[in-house]
Amino acid sequence: MTLKNAALLALIGTILMTALLVWTFVSNVLNVLRGVEAPVVLFHSLIFAFGCFSVMVFFYVFHRAQR
User: Fold this and answer.
1) Taking phi first (over 0 means left), then psi (-120 to 50 degrees means alpha), and beta for anything else, what does residue 55 get?
2) What is the pTM of this model?
3) 3 phi and psi, to 5 degrees?
4) Calpha distance 58→67 (Å, rounded)
5) Helix 3-34 vs helix 40-65: angle between axes, to the nearest 10 degrees?
6) Binning pLDDT at 50, 70 and 90, where does residue 1 land?
7) Residue 5, Cβ density class (10 Å: 0-12 exposed, 13-18 middle, ≥19 buried)
8) Pick from 27, 50, 28, 23: which is nearest to 41 by CA?
9) Is the dihedral of CA 25, 48, 9, 4 positive or negative?
10) 66 and which of 4, 13, 34, 45 could share a cystine (Cβ 3.0–4.6 Å)?
11) pLDDT for 3-42, tens place per residue?
12) Residue 43's pLDDT is what?
């Protein structure tokens, strides 16, 4: 497996994880607006979604930099 293929595989996995965490964040926002969950849940969910998005951007740039 080449470094470019490994970067692509990591990018695909991170895209899927980011989609899942963003969906969870949106669900938490809706639940807070409905009064089902405490607002502190949003902070936790936002940190996870932002962290995974940052890793996804890193893998995208890393994949593009490989020849």
Assistant:
1) alpha
2) 0.85
3) -65, -35
4) 16
5) 160
6) confident
7) exposed
8) 28
9) positive
10) 4
11) 999 999 999 999 999 999 999 999 999 999 999 999 999 9
12) 93
For tokens 């991170």, name the residue: 14
Tokens 């936790």 belong to 44
- Chain length of the chain: 67
Structure tokens at 46: 């936002």
